[in-house]
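hey can u run this one w/ S-adenosylmethionine bound, need the structure tokens asap thx
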Amino acid sequence: MIADTFGRPLGSLRVSVTDRCNLRCRYCMPEQEYVWLPKQSILTFEEIARLVRVFTSLGVDKVRLTGGEPLLRHDLPTLTAMLAGIPGVRDLAMTTNGLLLAKHAAPLREAGLGRVTVSLDTLRPERMRELARTDRHADVIAGIVAARAAGFDRIKLNTVVIRGVNEDELADLIEFAQAHATEVRFIEYMDVGGATGWSAAQVFSQREMLGVLSRRYGPITPVTAGRDPTAPAQRFQLPDGTTFGIVASTTAPFCRSCDRSRLTADGTWFLCLYAERGIDLREPLRNGASDTELAALIVSAWRGRSDRGAEERLAVADRGALYQLDALRADPRREMHTRGG
Ligand code: SAM
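ok here u go:
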């Protein structure tokens, strides 16, 4: 096993296939204009598959397609089939905002995509218009329904909970998820790059979520059976057995068990969501490095990994947005939508 300085294995790789997105969620892409990665720097499907193959030879067995919005990448089922065909990929998943999912769910399933997570912050179309600058709430719901119909059975819904925005919808979202045979995961609002409007006051914490839900439903118990120690979400159960998850990345970070790393669409590899810099894998790849040379580069970086980004943020007094706008414009890889959520 390849382990970092805290003994954390190289287990899960998030592959951002594009930095483009068709939403403008205020917690992720609140600005009017963005600096995009240059077109010629975007990895081809062959380049992505080759890197994933090298990563799997080093222990990665979970791969998640993300972005930006992954469904904006042309012909994603072809890439999906290439990745699904790599023997070391045990779990192939995708995180999407769902806008285009109704059209693509069946071809992706046929191509070998194993799991889908759909971001859904609100059940109210008018609220989504405010939060994400779109009128297409119905398309997201249609996407969830289509994914079920296409045979995806462990669909998760991601909800970023923000005080004063959607913290009044927790119960509604749990019930919606239950009715659609999916499971919701509430994510604490994080001060990741891109979240220029972040403030501690807007974070609705895990503790507060559990408080609201236990007042509504009665005692809530953690689900421990079958728990994956590297999973970011802790799962809970309502008295009637309904389950949901909370990702308490802001108030109770889980850096000590983090086995995740991120590959941007231009082939920059980040060892932590909060890392200032990434490692350029595109240049060696395009300059003819062998698989062995790429593997050596990856192994040496991972063995030196000591990142605990979210824990370090927790220790910051007067915590505010991680980056100001000029710092994001200077390097778009600092953006959450570039490094992949
Ligand atoms: N476009 C896809 C989507 O919407 O799911 C994939 C990329 S998106 C960056 C991945 C996840 O990051 C989403 O579930 C989103 O809600 C989450 N995210 C983005 N900014 C966040 C923030 N400031 N705090 C917490 N989660 C955030």
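The longest helix spans residues 45-57. anyway lmk if its weird
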